[in-house]
């Protein structure tokens, strides 16, 4: 569903954020990106949809003959391709003065014409889908509330609904729990994983909480200095692996035993 080939990002300073990363994510798989700050996690996600331009390498979205190559697209083609890549941001990226419903419907901007979007006149089918998604994420009764009236967890749920109304093939999720308390963090991760399973979405989740990644994600990629140092099952994420990714530390209290994670 999503394939990265030799994806590289080098900044003008010469610093290499990504170094020839090869990665393939099949349909329906939820993958966690872990690693220290500066490892290249956010850069990788943003290079996929070209919010950050890769220096070299390729990104393929889709399967077989329907696959498209993102990195060589013109601006107009890229705008259309981004419809299929839902983005969920750490800081929510909501328009504070707009209602919850209006923020969700903004996920349809890539599909409606300029004047419809400017006047906020969306097709009834889009409005119906927005209501359905708000119900699914537990915010139906808040459809008319302004975004600045919501808690952090509620804002993140709006962001999830906004991404899903695009009807994407893949979700790119950048630190969705960074500003949330432990209970809300679990709820948000559970919701994302459930929705990916329901819609057979591939997802890349950049996350700092190793135990949370191990608890909810099917596959874990460990980045260090822009390179993949681990690619495997959450059950294989032992102290030696974490030392390779992050450096020396007592990791026994950080990771969850496999039998506990499965409970």
TrEMBL record:
SUPFAM superfamilies: P-loop containing nucleoside triphosphate hydrolases. CDD domains: ABC_PhnC_transporter. GO terms for molecular function: ABC-type phosphonate transporter activity; ATP binding; ATP hydrolysis activity. Keywords: ATP-binding, Cell membrane, Membrane, Nucleotide-binding, Translocase, Transport. Transmembrane segments: none annotated. Residues 2-250 form the ABC transporter domain. One of its GO terms (cellular component) is membrane. Signal peptide: none annotated. Belongs to the ABC transporter superfamily. NCBIfam families: ABC_phnC. PANTHER family: AMINO ACID IMPORT ATP-BINDING PROTEIN, PHOSPHONATES IMPORT ATP-BINDING PROTEIN PHNC. This is Phosphonate ABC transporter ATP-binding protein. It comes from Stappia albiluteola.
């Amino acid at each position: 569903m999503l394939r990265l080939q030799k994806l590289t990002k080098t900044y003008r300073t010469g610093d290499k954020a990504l170094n020839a990363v090869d990665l393939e994510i099949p349909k329906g798989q939820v993958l966690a990106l872990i690693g220290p700050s500066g490892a290249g996690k956010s850069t990788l996600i943003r290079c996929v949809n070209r919010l950050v331009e890769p220096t070299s390498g390729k990104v393929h979205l889709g399967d077989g003959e329907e696959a498209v190559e993102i990195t060589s697209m013109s601006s107009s083609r890229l705008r259309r391709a981004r419809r299929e890549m839902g983005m969920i941001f750490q800081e929510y990226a909501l328009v504070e003065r707009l209602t919850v419903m209006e923020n969700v419907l903004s996920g349809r901007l890539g599909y409606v014409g300029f004047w419809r979007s400017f006047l906020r006149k969306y097709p009834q089918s889009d409005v119906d889908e927005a209501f359905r998604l708000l119900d699914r994420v537990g915010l139906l009764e808040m459809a008319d509330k302004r975004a600045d009236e919501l808690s952090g967890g509620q804002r993140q749920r709006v962001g999830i609904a906004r991404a899903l109304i695009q009807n994407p093939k893949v979700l790119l999720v950048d630190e969705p729990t960074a500003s949330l308390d432990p209970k809300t963090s679990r709820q948000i991760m559970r919701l994302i994983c459930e929705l990916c399973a329901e819609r057979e979405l591939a997802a890349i989740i950049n996350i700092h909480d190793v135990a949370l990644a191990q608890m909810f994600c099917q596959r874990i990629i460990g980045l260090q200095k822009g390179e993949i140092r681990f690619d495997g099952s959450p059950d294989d994420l032992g102290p030696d692996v974490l030392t390779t990714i992050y450096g020396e530390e007592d990791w026994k209290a950080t990771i969850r035993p496999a039998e506990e994670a499965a409970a």
